[in-house]
Amino acid sequence: MAEAETIHDVIQPAAAHAHAPSVAAHHHGPPTGFIRKYIFSVDHKVIGIQYLLLAMAAVLVGMLLSVLMRMNLTWPGTAWPLLEILFPIGAKGGVMTPEFYLSLVTMHGTMMVFFVLTTAPQGGFGNYFLPIQIGAEDMAFPTLNMLSFWVTFVGFVALIAAAFVEGGGPTGGWTGYPTLSAIGGKLNVPGMGSAQNLWWNGQNLWIISIAIFCVASLLGALNFITTLLNMRTRGMSLMRMPLTCWSWFTTAILALLAFPVLLAAGVLLFLDRTADTSFFVPGGLSDGTRVLTEHNGGSPILWQHLFWFFGHPEVYIAILPGMGVTSHVLSTFARKPVFGYRAMVFAMFAIGLLGFFVWGHHMFLSGMSPYTGMAFSVLTLTIGVPSAIKTFNWIGTLWGGRIRFTTPMLFAIGFVSLFVAGGVTGIVLGQTSLDLSMHDTYFVLGHFHLVMGVAAIFGMFAGTYFWFPKMFGRMMSERLGKIHFWPTFIGVYAIFIPFHIMGIVGMPRRYASFEEYEFLRVLDPVVLFVTIAVIITVAAQFLFWYNFFWSIWKGEPAGDNPWEATTLEWSTSSPPPHDNFGGRVLTVYRGPYEFAVPGAPDDYVMQTTPDAAEENQSPLVQGGSEISGNGHNGHKH
Amino acid sequence: MSTEAHAVDQSTLAADWGGGTFPYHVGHKKLGMWLFIVSDAMTFSALLIGYSYVRASSDEWPAPFHFYPSVVFSTVMTLCLLASSFTMVMAVGASARRDKRAARRWIMLTMLGGLTFLVLHLYEWYHLIHDYGLKPFSLPAEWAREWPNAPPLFGACFFTITGLHMFHVLTGVIYLGWIAFKIRRVRHEDVEVSGLYWHFVDLVWMFVFPLIYLMSVYAE
Amino acid sequence: MRPFDQPVVEAGRVGGELPSSGSGGRLRAFAPLRRLTADTDLLLNGLCVLFAVGFIALAVRSAAMSGAFISTDSLFMTAVCLMLAGVFMVSPALMLWERGLLKMPSFAIPEGEALIDEGPIHFEGSMRLFLNVLGGLLVLTVIEVALAYFQVPLYIMLTILIGLSLIKAALIVAYFMHLRFERMSLVLTLIPILVVCICLLFIFFPDSTRSLNLRTTRAGAVATPEAR
To answer: Torsion over CA of A273, A276, A278 and A279, rounded to 10 degrees?
Structure first.
């Protein structure tokens, strides 16, 4: 134990930490066995990669599901022999039933939103790089971190299981709207799932999966916030943090406050399904021949409120880390400081804050009071202001830069493009009167797929190409990366721009087929075009996977700082040692994006590079050590 | 004078937030527990709001709890929790004085308060389910006669909210038991953090008790 | 690991100001009365005894006054009161045990186990303060219960109850959870976001009352297939 104390003193950046009650939690030496090292590891870097791999598995499933959906929409009623083997009930004879299509929609949405867009940017990159970028040796609660991941994994398994159970897959959509989600498959209603009332049906498992995911996410979020606030190294003041850290911080706050609401809603919905309560089941519900619920309680609108109270912040949980990565990458490869760093930070917080005020815009058609709708509409349009600030600052960052068009840079620019393209339709949908006709059409699908789906994925791609050398010590192939970029970038536009047109024509979302709608016949070529675009774009993603796994072992070795970037992760080896900095305690002397500093020897200055003038005064650092000498209990006023 | 004070303030700010120190002068576990509490408070708020929502949207809502014995009984439960909160503060105080034995004793008293609460609560559940016939999905026939327009949601709300709270109490008792068991090896911060959780459980009850019980008192 | 540098204070000494040796516990029972009354432990335990006696009296009353003793209500109240009396006796019993007046199986901490050095510990507040807070909470609870007893109209009651509960919550957070003694920055971090988010949840209510007003069929008049 005495030995542990000494190590402890050496690796702690400040004396304050020596008195920190819980810092002892970090005194894990490098693990040795395979299981402790790679499976149940408490190292944030391993956990980050685990999250990334989980997200990759989920995105593969989600993508294949979308291909299945497109197949059914384009060639309805066709028998696909392979499908029958996988889903003997849902696709009897290989022909997809409408219920099966609905469960595809649900699984695709849930998989993508929860297990890709939430886990990869936050759980994956955030876990790996947040501690390194603030100069900490691990997260604040390493064991809790491991637990978060494995709980998420259990949620993932539950969701996969939901597709295959005998009771039929979940049909409620990723938003799980009652009454379908509350009584689907339960009351023996035709068209509402399977005939038997099986406890292990997909909808129940879906709720369980989501509830588990909520717990994991909020535990992860509190870990992130604690790490970021308490574990910054000397000199790493808040305004010297990279924008990625800011984005993970904002995201964590949103997750901390939004997921518990979904958890509560999930508990209520689960009780509706299993204990026959009727929180979300309205009275007098009828299937046309008989009254199913003979009481007058319960409100599906309550679910919509609770869900979207979570759901809208969730959208920002998905996109904000992408914004952070984009800012980071744009600045690095434009060799310019981020234009308006402070404005970027405040815009990010403004988006996060406003994200809590606007959930009603998903519910304009729930029959809400026009006054409430008006308020939500105005607040929704207000989000355009900080979003525009960010966009202008990205463009400002690029303006006049000596741009290096590397693959991460291409994806970051792609992010800006997609964010703008998807964002402007948000302005359309944010207005009550326009939304009335656009609601639940393909227009909405086009909007949110561009702005939060594909844009966030582009943020992830940028992050992957950018940080891959740090994570694995080898470069990803630039040539393959560029070949990957162009079909992806063109492909997503080819898929989602037609969605807007289909929506304006009036194609409703979530319908299994449009054969019976004469007025939609005109769209048949467009539907076919989109399907072909989907198949090509999906095929292009396998290039990425190939590049990823090939580069792990065969890539060109990367140095410590292949991109000539400035932040702390580039001042350690690639990949970083177990405690991130090999026992060194870094001191930060400057902001995160000091490119093209006049008078500097290189065109970039690392955050850890001392500067003669600054070293002399440096009130910040001295103040820091002074405080720390007194421990964390002093300084009362 | 004022500029000087301002300058001092600025430097403290810089020192606190400049990195290498704990900005709130609070360790990881305590900050983490506070954040968890914020999060959990949102869960309970959502549930209580959901309950209020369905109640406000109903034509009628049962008010079945007679002042005696139901409300008196739940008041006693409240007193148990309040008393256990007090003993928990004393445990933290004892721990701060490094008096681990006293800390353990106070924690055990706290657990006792919590267990009493649990037992009373379970008894109440048993009573409501078996003697009255309240179910999560339906009202007892007697209540349904008295409040014919009421939805069957009273039991659902009651059992969900108190059930989740009970789960928190149970978790708290187990947590405290673990702390008491390891009292020699845990740090003061661990005791303090377990105390925070316990007080939060108490705090939630301060809203559950009036909203669920007192708002449902039978009009004699 | 350095040994614990302060003498371990005798278990049960809440005041903490009296040093004691390991075996001095029994002698203290015969110490002058004044010294004992100064001890806040005794005050609290006295209160506990009072509560216990009160509950026994309640149990007796409940058993005696109910017409049929073997009824759920009567059994329920009697059993509960007796149990509560037992609960409140635990602390005094523990005190007696510590002072050697009561023999009980020991759960003492094994000697010689190393303690952790954790640097300076910060704790504010005295027993008196916490007793005052507890008293305040009890008084507020009693007021709340009294509102229910006097059958105050529902909306007035709701308003007052929420107000009182907020005060109670504030008391718990400020004193029991020690937030009042933390830095202001922590308070400003935790409380506003929570308050804002909870306030936002109140936006649900217009929809709630709207669905009440829009409902055309009252329950009981729900259309059944036969009725149609």
So the answer is: -60
Residues of C whose CB is below 8 A from B219: 151
Q: Which of A383, A364, A365 is nearest to A426 (CA)?
A: A383
Across the interface, whether the CB atoms of C1 and A309 are under 8 A apart is answered no
* Contact partners, residue A507, CB within 8 Å, separation at least 6: A441, A442, A514, A520, A523
Q: Which CATH superfamily includes the segment(s) A3-282+297-554?
A: Cytochrome c oxidase-like, subunit I domain (1.20.210.10)
Is the pTM of the predicted complex or chain greater than 0.95? no
Cβ contact (<8 Å) for B31 and A229?
Answer: yes
Is C215 an 8 Å CB contact of chain A? Answer: yes
CA B46 to CA B43: how far, in whole Å? 5
C interface test, pick of B47, B84, B85 with most C CB neighbours within 10 Å: B85
Instruction: Provide the token pair at B135.
Output: 């179910």
Instruction: Retrieve residue A598's tokens.
Output: 């006049």
Mutate to test the interface with C, among B26, B57, B184 (most CBs of C within 10 A): B57
A495: CB partners within 8 A, 6+ apart: A449, A530, A533, A534, A537
Tokens of B101: 């034995």
Inter-chain CB proximity C202 and B49 less than 8 Å = yes
Could B21 and A222 be called an inter-chain contact, meaning their C-beta atoms sit closer than 8 Å? no
The verdict on C122 touching A (C-beta cutoff 8 Å) is yes
Decide if B86 touches C, using CB distance below 8 A.
Answer: yes
Domains of chain B: 27-216 (1.20.120.80)
Q: What is the pLDDT along chain B (220 residues), one digit of tens a residue?
A: 444 445 555 666 678 888 888 998 899 999 999 999 999 999 999 999 999 999 998 888 999 999 888 899 999 999 999 999 999 999 999 999 888 889 999 999 999 999 999 999 999 999 899 888 998 888 999 998 999 888 889 999 999 999 999 999 999 999 999 999 999 888 899 999 999 999 999 999 999 999 999 999 998 7
Tens digit of each residue's pLDDT (9 = 90 or more) over A161-177: 988 887 778 888 999 99
Q: What is the ipTM of this complex?
A: 0.93
What are A631's two structure tokens? 């421990």
The CA distance from A125 to A408, in Å, is 14
Whole-angstrom distance, CA of residue A226 vs CA of residue A141: 9
Nearest to A152, CA basis, from A99, A203, A114: A114
Q: If you ran DSSP here, which 8-state letter would residue A461 be given?
A: H
CA atoms within 13 A on the CB side of C104: 14
Cα A392 to Cα A328, A340, A355, distances in angstroms: 15, 10, 20
Nearest alpha carbon to residue A569 among A536, A608, A619 = A608
Q: What are all long-range contacts of C102-111, with beta carbons under 8 Å and residues at least 24 apart? A: C107/B104, C108/B101, C108/C11, C109/B100, C109/B101, C109/B104, C109/B183, C109/B184
A619 → closest Cβ in B14, B16, B20: B14
What does A485-518 look like in DSSP terms, one character per residue? HHHHHHHHHHHHHHHHHHHHHTPBTT-S--TT-G
CB contact under 8 A, B59 and C208: no
Contact B46 A264 (CB under 8 A): yes
Chain-centre distance for alpha carbon A367: 31
- Tell me whether residue A443 is exposed, middle or buried, using C-beta atoms within 10 angstroms of its C-beta: 0 to 12, 13 to 18, 19 or more: buried
d(CA A157, CA A147): 15
Query: Residue B183 and residue B99: Cα distance in Å, rounded?
Result: 10
Are A2 and C119 in contact (CB < 8 Å)?
no
User: Contact B24/C218, CB-based, under 8 Å?
Assistant: no
Domain edges within chain C: 25-98, 127-211
C162 has a chain B CB within 8 A of its CB: yes
C178 interfaces chain A, CB cutoff of 8 Å: no
- Residue B110 backbone dihedrals phi, psi, to 5 degrees: -60, -45
